[in-house]
Amino acid sequence: MDVNYEKLNPFSIYRELTKLNKLKPKIQKHLFEQIDDNTKAFFYDITSTYFEGECCIICAKGYSRDHRFDKKQVVIALVINTEGYPLYWEVMPGNTQDVTTIVDLADNLRKKLNLNECTLIFDRGMVSEDNLYYLEDKEFQYVTALDRDQIDGLDLFDLSLFKDIDLNKDDLTDQLPGFNKYDDDLYYQQKVKDDNTRCILGFNRSMKKDKLKTFHKNIDNLMQFIEEKNKDLAQAKKSRNKKVTARQIDKQLKKKRLHKIIKYNLTFKKLKVTRKDGTKRTVHSFEIETKIDKTAKKEATKAFGLTCFITKLSPEEIGIKKVISSYRAKYLIEKCFKIMKSIVKLRPVRLTIEKRVKAHVTVCVLSYMLLVTIDEKMKKSKLDLSTTETLKELSDCMVDRIKIKNDIEKQEIITENITTPTSTQKEILKNLECKKVVRKNFYKKYLDIPKMK
Fold it and tell me: What pLDDT digit, counting tens, does each position of 400-436 carry?
């Protein structure tokens, strides 16, 4: 509290970050021991954060969740419990792929936290046969999902049901034989593989509508690009290169994932161009002719709205609806990343030493944990305040410093106290179980009252 911020050396803070990084294993173990979670279910996901200025050794360009592909980054792995409290995190090189992180995660949870039994809930992007076998071998349970290609490879479900389904009907059960209704949008069917993996195919009406809307918008944008390109080609003043033109079109098709659906031909054209002196010359150009493959279009859209949830937990351990709701609840960890990047200011990183970068992430994770704690405690309060509003309300209670100068004796007396808390602030502190911080016998240990210079 008694800090002269004008004389504060930033390098002393950097050195403390190095010390903090050494404490991370103890911090994680302590947090894990505080969790009273009989279900032993945890959400796992990864995100990235980018750098400004110089970067550290583990920075690299990779898939950016911040859409900053021009920046180097690090990847952050995070595990939280079902209430949103973090218990494990790791900072990895910026080019780390999702699917490669599961093995190290399982090993670290076992070694560092002594966690031998739990259920991990994670995104479909981390699913591979090797990862699932490894988790099973280590006796970890899981709830996750398959991507579109993996659903096709199952050969368990009749996916032709979804090609011509009428999405506007109130109830879709008559169009989906063997499926049960989860809610107004989601329908599901369970089948079990020979290795006892439960595969629950879910069809979400709203998701399919949204995907179709985006799909058709991409087609419209692509056709607009072709139209503008044809205008440009028709007005060419110099001969155009066929390979260069094809590369430009292919880039757009792959970007919008339409390369299997829209086919094109480049038809050779001769154009007459008038020189400045009025004479004519011939340039070579092209016209782009496109065709939509209707069969490929139906094939591409049939999986829209589909999610296949998988687990090896038995029906007695977890019911079908609980599997679905558990996977859907992974929005909690996505929310965590959003808060860390906005309110907590995880990004951008401006540190250059690896240990300090990792400590920066630790500070952000612990800051998020405090926000979750405040949120949970304020939910039980009579005050209708969000976490952000709570912090804003408390920010008005500050240390007041009064300086009294005695010119005759050439002395300066400094007295410090805190702003008298309002009734709202007192109620907040009561709910946060922090009433003592505004008691004089507590805060006077941190304030020198009075002192002379």
Answer: 777 777 776 667 777 777 888 899 999 999 999 988 8
CA distance 238 to 240: 6
325-384 residue pLDDT tens: 999 999 999 999 999 999 999 999 999 999 999 999 999 999 999 999 999 999 988 888
Q: How many helices and strands (H and E) does the chain possess?
A: 13, 14
* Structure tokens belonging to residue 405: 């100068």
Structure tokens at 263: 């086919």
Length of the chain: 453
Q: Which CATH number fits the domain that encloses residue 218?
A: 3.30.110
Distance CA 180, CA 188 (A): 5
Contact 219, 239 (CB under 8 A): no
Rounded Cα distance, 232 and 89, in Å: 52
The count of domains in the chain is 3
Whole-angstrom distance, CA of residue 363 vs CA of residue 23: 12
Q: Count CA atoms closer than 13 A to 315's CA, side-chain side.
A: 8
Cα–Cα distance, 35 to 118 (Å, whole number) = 13
| Residue 404 domain-assigned (yes or no) | yes
Instruction: Give the amino acid at 86.
Output: P
Beta strands of 115-156 (E only): which ranges?
A: 119-122, 141-146
274 vs 13: CA distance, rounded Å: 70
* Structural domain boundaries, residue 407: 392-452
Indicate whether 258 and 358 sit together in one domain. Answer: no
Q: Pseudo-torsion of CA 44, 48, 54, 55, nearest 10°?
A: 40
For residue 377, give the amino acid letter. Answer: K
What are the CA-CA distances from residue 270 to residues 226, 266, 279, 283, 288 (Å)?
Answer: 19, 13, 16, 6, 14
Residue type, 189: Q
- Shared domain for 291 and 360, answered yes or no, is no
